[in-house]
Amino acid sequence: MSNLGYIEFDDNLISDANLFVKPEGDLFLTIGFTIHRCYDDAFTCSYYLSRTTRWAACSGDIPYSMTYVRPGKLMSQEERMNITVDENCKNNPLITDMWWNAFDHEGNYDNESLESFIAAIRLTENRVAMQPEVIEKIYASTLLETIYNDVNSTIELSISEDYGNDFAYIPKREVKGVPMKWFKAAEVVLRSRLTPKNLTPYAVKSLAADAFRVYSMRERTT
What we know:
By secondary structure, the protein is an alpha+beta fold. Helix content is 41%, strand content 14%.
């Protein structure tokens, strides 16, 4: 994935595995993986295009129908048949949900399946990232504006470390490589606009991880 420009982050708060993030102008294209519920080596993925790296935020006025989508949905039937190594897809051309295998029956990397997956990403990633009308809706979303502002405020506060010592929702130690100062900053930012009912450890953890990823991506690309 690094050869395609994606940066891996150790984060499975929602996705089944780590997230892979790629800058697309001022936006971020994030890939999250889903592990098959019956076969541990089978996987698929979804794209998510947004102003931050918050995974799969799909409520309110967020235009999620074409920003949160699996690769197979972005291919023609002919393209899927040319790329897939999934027998279910080959036997039923109407299936759009493509799956791949990380390992073969002998426990070795399934190179044919993994090459098919990379080919699918190469073919479809720009079909998510280059949608002028959808991008316009992303910038027009008031909910994404709020998330974006929360992320920027958390980044600023984590850098200054001017967040005091009164915390109720932060974890006891860093999570997934995110230093504690990010959770402290996130709680202060959320406390300024959320009611106690909506201020939860999960909300703090989600914002902290998002802000940390955005900051890390900006540092790598500037």
